[in-house]
Amino acid sequence: MVSTALMRIVSPCWKPSVEGENSSERGDVSGRFDGLLWYKDSGRHVNGEFSMAVIQANNLLEDHSQLESGSMSSLESGPLGTFVGIYDGHGGPEAARFIYDRLFDNIKTIRAAEFTSENQGMSADVINKAFLATEEEFLTLVKRQWLSRQEKALKVIKAVQLSYEHNASVESVREELRLLHPDDPQIVVLRHKVWRVKGLIQVSRSIGDAYLKKAEFNREPLLSKFRLPEPFHKPILKAEPTISVQKLCSEDQFLIFASDGLWEHLSNQEAVDIVQSCPRNGIARKLVKTALCDAAKKREMRYSDLKKIDRGVRRHFHDDITVIVLFLDSHLISRSSWHGPLLSIRGGGDNFANT
């Protein structure tokens, strides 16, 4: 049995949040805590059901996430749908927190501005513009706080893709970088058997990383280890997402969204097999637990012992993990209206002190 004192030590330093003035009218977003794990086993979205879970490993949870279901536009007549975002912060939570504060609002605003009677769905152009608008807002924030908070420039947020990672370890990504920077033979560098952009970072696209976007941020007070010795005249990293469109059909059953903390321990097929073979209720927590069991096994320890390790130290065993599983009910997808409550869940919200 875990003592009361130990329970105080491992209490999570974050909590999910409900945003908006009409939060009391939104769907049920209540979840449960189990040590550093927060989970909501089952809920409803416009097109079916969902399950969600988040496990913390770092001192501050760097993953942020959100599930927004209802209108996808700031106009009342906007299209209905479900938006899922999982934002994996690197080196801190600030950029990830900024994205979940601004990206969906930008999507709704831009969608409303481009609404026409012929275009009533959600276009890739709207999503792309929302990413770039969010990036510009973040860089504006970096510039405003540059002298007093240089650490802002180091935060990065990596968007979760359904196709492939924007990571220099992928050969096609390295080739893309070389084509974009033909005059820079050091655009990707192999260091300690790991490919990195300019020898510094693995991701090739992000919102944030201002020191690799604008030369004005690649100088003091930025730490010397992040400064490039040679000047650059165009962004080394880009913020544009890779957008793929997949039309849903009646055979589609579910979507798994997760930060890379899950995929370090589970393959795509392993995750799909688990979701397909287990009850829907609690399936996100099931995926998280499976990943943690694998992390414990790799360190030759028991899962029950891993659960007792506090955040910060826990990062030596696994990364933050966020999982959202969307189940797709074909009869709901075919409907043109939604009569349920609006839903807004944000994982990795406001921190609160241990008690």
Number of helices, counting only DSSP H or I runs of 4 residues or more: 9
Outline the low-pLDDT stretches.
1-14, 18-27, 157-161, 350-355
Helicity, in percent? 25-40%
Tally of strands: 12
Major sheet description: 5 strands, antiparallel
Keywords: Hydrolase, Magnesium, Manganese, Metal-binding, Protein phosphatase
InterPro entries: PP2C, PP2C_BS, PPM-type-like_dom_sf, PPM-type_phosphatase-like_dom
Organism: Carya illinoinensis (Pecan)
Cofactor: Mg(2+); Mn(2+)
Provide the fold topology:
Layout: H1 4-9, E1 32-34, E2 37-45, E3 48-55, E4 63-71, E5 80-90, H2 94-113, H3 124-144, E6 156-159, H4 171-180, E7 188-191, E8 194-197, E9 207-208, E10 254-258, H5 260-263, H6 268-277, H7 283-298, H8 303-306, E11 321-328, H9 330-333, E12 343-347
Antiparallel strand pairs: 1-2, 2-3, 3-11, 4-5, 4-12, 5-6, 6-9, 7-8, 10-11
